[in-house]
Amino acid sequence: MDAIGRARATPEAITTPGQLIRQMRQAHRLTLAELGTLTGYSAAQVSRYERGISPMTDIAVLRRFAEALGIPAQAFGLAPLPPQVRHGQATIPTTAYPSLPAHRVGRTRREDGDPVRRRTLLTNLAVTAAAAASGRFLTGGTTQTDKALLGEMLVAGLRDAMLGLGNPPGDPPPPEHLPAELSRAHSDFHTCRYGSLAVRLPQLIRAGHTHNGGGTDHYALLAQSYVLATRMLVKLDEQQLGWMAADRARQLAEAGDDVLTAAETARNLAVLARKAGWNDQAMSIALAAADDPSLRSAGRAGTAERGLLIQSAAYTAARSGDRKGMRQLTNEAAAIAASLGGSTLLRDHGGGFSPVTVQLHLISAENSAGDPSAALSAARVIAPQSLPSVERRSRYYTDIAAAFAQMGRREDCVRALLTAEHHAPEETYARPAVRSLISSLLVSGRTTSELRGLAARSGVLA
């Protein structure tokens, strides 16, 4: 009698997928941790599945356990997957993920652009990061032209850190310093200090892998680092690296049994799917994560993350041309914010969640739905000083600029961009979307000295 036959022959009746998984795990003499390694979940999460605390309604989850334990798909009520043929060879799904190589890999020979100039910029950025870490005010630093390259340097640094390439200057922070470094990286992001972030965040990811001693706390910290990296890569329109960072964040959040980070990872994945034009999948990812029972039981922070996910789904509806759905989902998110009675700060989302952040999201959604007048009406409700971070204030003004651009109000658009630059120059210079808007203004009509100056500072006009 095979393992599944022995499991079925036991006196205990098997009525749920979790019970079948537990009996098959025991028949294979696997511990919770060993099965977790095979499936990519923590031992605690496997236990929750077995006991029915976390419902097993996701087909992908069921298939993962079926493959790990050799359970026929039909035992879970699933149809067997047909074999896929690629290049004349049948392939089967896998749950194995490649691990990040050690960071001590020889320096890559490929360097984009002028290598001397970029090495100089990296040195300047390292000085900036050191100054930020020690709290000193830097009177010198990078040149204006170098500031326009900050986005490129952030991408290059994150790429090399994620691939284990290069030998950056200095020693990695010791393990006990990593939580404080993560806090500083979040501060760099929310204050748009991208020169500092371009050094700090790649260094944090490298150090997290170098000091990888396992444990849920370590996995959770590294997951949060990858969540931040994903948000930055999304902002910089680096979708390929963004998918890579988001998937690593997802794996690490599950390994660290970190419900809130897993939810934020799902939100980032939904954003990436939307940017790829997969609006149906983006909607499904966001709403499925919002309805996850583990998130619903995570207290006030879990409720706030649920609101952010529904807010993201509203934006996806706008991108799909579904204005009615967008407004319904926005109203749902607003109701959640009202029920919380004020702003809720979140570790992985410095903007937090509040009625103001819902309204801020509505500006972008109305712009995407093709109604710039409604976007400006939504913007008038917000007092910019009430926005929770420099990064959010910059986003507010660039969204207003986008609305003015749609309406052909060039002078108002330029004024909004200059205000965004005043609040967060490095954000204005680094974001491709903002640079594209500036470029379109240059070629679509009469230019002014203010516009030409902004274009020069942002690197659009050499």
Question: Concise description?
Answer:
The protein has helices at residues 3-9, 17-27, 32-39, 43-51, 59-69, 115-134, 144-147, 150-163, 178-190, 194-210, 216-235, 239-255, 259-275, 279-290, 293-296, 299-319, 323-340, 355-368, 372-380, 390-406, 410-423, 425-430, 432-444, 449-457, and strands at residues 84-86, 89-91, 344-346, 349-353. With 462 residues, it is mainly α.
Structure, explained:
By secondary structure, the protein is mainly alpha-helical. It folds into 4 domains: 3-82, lambda repressor-like DNA-binding domains (434 Repressor (Amino-terminal Domain)), CATH 1.10.260.40; 116-257, no CATH class; 278-382, no CATH class; 389-462, no CATH class. It is 66% helix and 3% strand. The protein is built from 24 helices and 4 strands. The chain has helices at 3-9, 17-27, 32-39, 43-51, 59-69, 115-134, 144-147, 150-163, 178-190, 194-210, 216-235, 239-255, 259-275, 279-290, 293-296, 299-319, 323-340, 355-368, 372-380, 390-406, 410-423, 425-430, 432-444, 449-457, and strands at 84-86, 89-91, 344-346, 349-353. Strands 1-2 form a two-stranded antiparallel sheet. A hairpin with a 2-residue loop joins strand 1 and strand 2 (89-91). Helix 3 crosses helix 4 (43-51), helix 12 (239-255) packs antiparallel against helix 13 (259-275) and helix 13 runs parallel beside helix 16. The radius of gyration is 24 Å and the shape is globular.
